[in-house]
Design goal:
The protein has 19 helices and 18 strands. By secondary structure, it is α+β, with helices and mostly antiparallel strands.
Length: about 575
């Protein structure tokens, strides 16, 4: 069926109303297919749109072309207590939260998808600060609000804690912890006894008197030997209510003690211990505050509605200002109104970010002070708080980094390979089909511009598999032209006139071209639906290339033939 017949059939299916607008549409469609001027206008319009999209948006490059990072995350379950169903559910929820974090991080075209039922793959192309991105993705961001208690709450439990540590760890591990502590403090391991290494009998680095009462234990001369009280000997009088001070070099040993299940059972049921996130300086040494907090929080981050980073105008310190939901705001206001004068700890991932004193009833707004932390860290914290907490801790099981130089090498090598293949194909087409081959080459140039413009317009990311799909669609465009030219040759050999042979060649080759392109397009759609990231990139580029190659072979090539024949007499032979 000729293009004119198609236009008439369209008009027959949609008859013109009395106003005559239907006739106008029919004439326009007919002009697009049957007149040379209409064909040229359509091709120039498509080229103009494609070039504009390519110029204004550009092509986005994937991880393998511009560099970036690849992470594989799994649920951290060292005890093996989670079932397969629980892990799958945690990964499902983590995917949504990490996608929100990545979107706020500002990475273009990230790849975030599940692999199997217990693994999450994250690919971030063009990322500059990889450590920052990894921290943002891997941070659990579990926010809790807890009341700070007095150290007297655990004073009676200290002997039980010491006995639990001695029974659970034994002398060998205590010696190792003592050596590690001494090494962290810069003390030669052979210069002090185990008791001195671990429990700080050397008082040269004692904490200055801060005015706080030492509620940890009685006077030193009434205590048993340090080796029988490993926990008690590492804590010093706190500088604020409800805290102890632990020397920075002793923090790792203290964290090991607090990880012992027997120690947790030795604490009062309503008490938990948490370190402050940032160290403080006291005299010539640095310490970490160890807070005594209520075990159960009165509120969690589930009631958080928004969080933004800001600077404290008075002290020029970074802070995160947060806003609670209406329900959370009422609960927060009621709680703070009942505890005026007490300290409120803001705990993020088991570390105390700040513990301000409650001076008045607080509504649905508050802030987290970050002391000397840079503003970028405050922004990152606000980002993860807005996205929400991960349902379970995630661990990085696979990490790969693709440098920009490697991406440039891929681009250069892919460009060279593509150019060599393209030049070879063009040379064969022009050498074998003569003038018809030249017309096919021009149509192929139009195809390339349309495909790249469509990729830019859709915001698709170009990857190495995508380049492979693009090259494959180039081959299909060439194959369509070969089918058309061979049918034209058959008509010419049968004695048809040039214009009749061209019309019949395109008409007879149409069904084969449609079949081959349609089956490949269906395959590409299936790959896109069920494939992973690289396979999807291949499928997208292949699908766009197939549609562009069909338009190029059937419409553009025929238009070029019409231009070529319009300048020749009907009796002149076609060079093919």
């Amino acid at each position: 069926m000729t293009p004119t017949h198609r236009a008439r059939e369209v008009y027959w299916l949609f008859p013109a109303p009395e106003t005559g607008s239907g006739r106008l549409v029919s004439d326009l469609v007919s002009a697009m297919f049957s007149t040379l001027r209409g064909r040229i206008v359509v091709i120039l319009a498509v080229l103009a749109v494609s070039i504009w999209q390519l110029y204004s948006r550009g092509l986005k490059q994937g991880l393998d072309l511009q560099g970036g990072m690849h992470l594989a995350l799994e649920v951290d379950d060292p005890q093996g207590t989670m079932t397969a169903e629980a892990k799958a559910d945690a990964i499902d929820r983590a995917e949504r939260i990490i996608r929100t974090r990545v979107d706020e991080l500002g990475v273009e075209e990230p790849l975030i998808q599940k692999v199997g039922s217990d693994r999450l793959v994250v690919q971030l192309a063009g990322i500059d600060d990889e450590d920052r991105a990894k921290n943002i993705l891997n941070q659990a961001a579990f926010l809790q609000f807890k009341l700070v208690l007095s150290t007297t709450k655990i004073a009676a439990s200290l002997p039980r804690i010491d006995r639990a540590i001695l029974a659970a760890l034994g002398p060998e591990e205590l010696r190792r912890l003592g050596a590690d502590t001494a090494q962290a403090a810069g003390v030669p391991a052979g210069g002090r006894t185990v008791e001195e290494l671990l429990f700080g009998s050397d008082t040269s680095g004692a904490v200055p008197d801060t005015g706080a009462a030492d509620t940890a234990a009685p006077a030193e001369d009434t205590l048993p030997a340090p080796s029988s009280r490993p926990f008690t000997a590492l804590i010093n009088a706190g500088d604020v209510e409800g805290t102890y001070l632990v020397a920075t070099e002793d923090v790792s040993a203290m964290e090991r003690f607090l990880a012992v299940p027997e120690v947790l059972r030795a604490l009062p049921r309503d008490v938990s211990l948490h370190f402050e996130s940032q160290p403080i300086g006291v005299g010539a040494r640095t310490y970490r505050r160890l807070y005594v907090l209520e075990r159960e929080p009165f509120m969690t981050g589930e009631d958080l509605e928004n969080a933004i980073a800001a600077r404290d105008p008075q002290f020029n310190q970074s802070q995160v200002q947060f806003e609670l939901t209406r329900t959370g705001g009422r609960r927060f206001s009621q709680f703070t109104g009942q505890h005026i004068g007490d300290f409120l700890a803001i705990v993020l991932d088991d570390e105390v970010m700040s513990a301000p004193v409650i001076r008045d009833r607080i509504g649905n707004r508050g802030q987290i002070e970050l002391a000397g932390a840079p503003l970028e860290e405050a922004r990152d914290l606000a980002l993860v708080l807005r996205a929400g907490a991960l349902p379970a801790p995630l661990t990085v099981v696979e990490e790969r980094t693709v440098g920009p130089s490697l991406g440039q090498d891929s681009i250069r090598q892919g460009t060279i390979a593509g150019l060599i293949g393209l030049v070879g194909v063009l040379a064969i087409m022009m050498g074998f089909y003569k003038m018809a081959g030249v017309l096919a080459v021009l149509a192929l140039g139009v195809y390339v511009i349309i495909t790249l413009g469509a990729l830019a317009g859709l915001g698709a990311t170009l990857t190495l598999p995508g380049i492979a799909g693009f090259i494959l669609s180039v081959g299909m465009a060439v194959d369509s032209n070969v089918l058309i030219f061979e049918r034209i040759r058959e008509e010419l050999d049968a004695g048809r006139a040039s214009r009749t042979a061209v019309d019949e060649g395109f008409s007879h080759a149409l069904s084969a071209i449609v079949d081959s392109n349609l089956t490949t397009l269906i395959t590409a759609l299936i790959l896109f639906q069920f494939g992973t990231g690289p396979v999807r990139g291949f499928a997208v580029t292949l699908s766009i290339g197939i549609m562009a190659s069909f338009f190029s072979a059937i419409y553009v090539t025929r238009t070029l033939f019409l231009i070529y024949l319009s300048r020749r007499r009907a009796s002149d032979p076609v060079s093919i």
